[in-house]
C-alpha cells in the first residue's frame, strides 16, 4: 500500500474479469473494493477509460443480464 500497488492490482483483476467473462458477483465485489480504495474518484480526472471505468461498465452490463 505504501507504493500504491492497489491500482495496478485492480487493473489486472479487471483485465482478468474481462478475459474470463466472470459473473456479476465478481464485478460486484470488485466494485466494492474499488470504492473502498477510492479509485473511482481518480478515474473522473483522466481523459481516457481507466480500469475503474471498465469495472463500472462491466457491473452495469452484468446487472442488466440478471
3D architecture notes:
The protein has helices at 6-20, 24-37, 39-43, 51-65. The chain has four helices and no strands. It is mainly α and 66 residues long.
Which helices and strands appear, and what pairs or packs with what?
Elements: H1 6-20, H2 24-37, H3 39-43, H4 51-65
Question: TL;DR?
Answer:
The chain is mostly helical. It has helices at residues 6-20, 24-37, 39-43, 51-65. The mean pLDDT is 76.
Structural class by secondary-structure content? mainly alpha
Radius of gyration: 12 Å
What order do the helices and strands follow? HHHH
The largest pleated sheet is described as:
none
Q: N-to-C terminal Cα separation, in Å?
A: 35 Å
Q: What is the overall number of helices?
A: 4
- How many strands? 0
Question: What percentage of residues falls in helices of 4 or more residues?
Answer: over 70%
Strand portion, in percent?
Answer: under 5%
Which stretches are low in confidence, meaning pLDDT under 50 for 5 or more residues running? none
Overall pLDDT score: 76
**Coarse shape:** globular
